[in-house]
Specification:
This is ABC transporter substrate-binding protein. This protein is α/β, with parallel strands linked by helices. Helix content is 41%, strand content 16%.
Length: 340
């Protein structure tokens, strides 16, 4: 009888209840974007693989970074997905740890610009996007970012407000084209300010541009590649510009919370997210452009994303330190010269 009881206790320890008691929890902080797809393609498969529970917190960057700061001495989040600049801000605030990339089996597969975006070893890029100009190819020709301000074109242009994700990158490239390439973006903001009464609108959301293009209220606008799909459905000829100065864009990265007790599990999740299989699935669903260079996409997906080695090498991203150190100045100059 005693042997039977011992055996019963041993079986209980192996039961689902016993397993649940030992289940580990990984908490991640991410953008609210496409969470249904992420659950199906990333979260559920990882839980099945690791035998752990994934807790997902969403919100905008300001809210999520503020929470990490508030819980700095006793971290709640283990891993976060943020922008390049926010990763540097988190690093400066002592909120994140250096990533041991030797533990990432998929690290070598990443495009070079995604391996250490801020040059400090504190983040790894999981997706990036190009920013260029969508334009009516039957109405105009775009060879340079400066073409947006040509007298014959400027009255048909929508330009992103400086407070949007696309504003500073577009101003950065316009500055290159005008020979006014300074971190304060003063030259390009002043040039836009001189044409502010001609420009159709300084947009806040790219979703409003498709309708403006359809109604022929605008012919051109700087946009992120993630917004391109909507333009391709219009019944007017639209092209994606490849200006001689190049394209700009942005990148989102993964970071490890400093002091997290689950960094080994967070590293496993990071590696899973960066794998060729997962990056391919996300790209084919048009959720994210792949940072993994081994991803091969269908023509339909490739045409709607930032894809390929040549594109990755051509992107001129604003260095995070410049963005962080100049944001307040950009807004001040914009309000003075453009007045939005």
């Amino acid at each position: 009888m005693k042997k039977i009881l011992i055996a019963s206790v041993a079986l209980a320890a192996l039961s689902p209840l016993g397993a649940a008691a030992a289940e580990r929890t990984l908490t991640i902080s991410v953008y609210a974007f496409a969470q249904d797809d992420f659950k199906t393609l990333v979260y559920d498969p990882f839980e099945a693989q690791c035998g752990c529970k994934l807790v997902v917190e969403t919100g905008n960057s300001v809210e999520r970074l503020a929470k990490m700061e508030a819980n700095k001495t006793s971290p709640v989040v283990d891993l976060a997905a943020v922008s390049m600049a926010d990763a540097l801000a988190a690093s400066r605030a002592g909120l994140i740890d250096k990533i041991d990339t030797a533990k990432l089996a998929n690290f070598a597969k990443l495009y070079e610009l995604a391996r250490d975006p801020n040059g400090d070893g504190m983040s790894v890029g999981y997706t990036f996007y190009a920013t260029s100009i969508a334009y009516r190819s039957d109405k105009m020709k775009i060879d340079s970012w400066a073409d947006l301000l040509k007298p014959e074109y400027v009255g048909h242009v929508a330009f992103p407000n400086v407070t949007t994700n696309q504003g500073p990158p577009a101003l950065y490239m316009l500055g290159l084209a005008l020979g006014k390439d300074t971190p304060d973006l003063k030259g390009s903001i002043e040039a836009v300010g001189e044409k502010k009464d001609d420009i159709v609108t300084f947009y806040e959301k790219s979703s409003q541009l498709v309708q403006l293009m359809q109604q022929e209220e605008i012919w051109a606008a700087p946009i992120g590649r993630f917004s391109w799909a909507g333009f391709t459905k219009l019944d007017v000829p639209i092209a994606w510009a490849t200006p001689k100065e190049g394209q700009t864009g942005g990148m989102n990265v993964l970071v490890l919370t400093k002091g997290s007790k689950n960094q080994d599990l967070a590293m496993q999740f990071m590696d899973f997210w960066l794998s060729t299989e997962i990056q391919t699935k996300l790209a084919e669903k048009l959720v994210d452009s792949p940072a993994n260079s081994e991803v091969k996409l269908s023509e339909a997906a490739a045409n709607n994303l930032t894809y390929g080695e040549a594109t990755a090498k051509s992107l001129k991203l604003i260095p995070s330190a410049i963005a962080l150190d100049n944001r307040a100045g950009w807004l001040k100059t914009w309000n003075e010269k453009v007045g939005q």
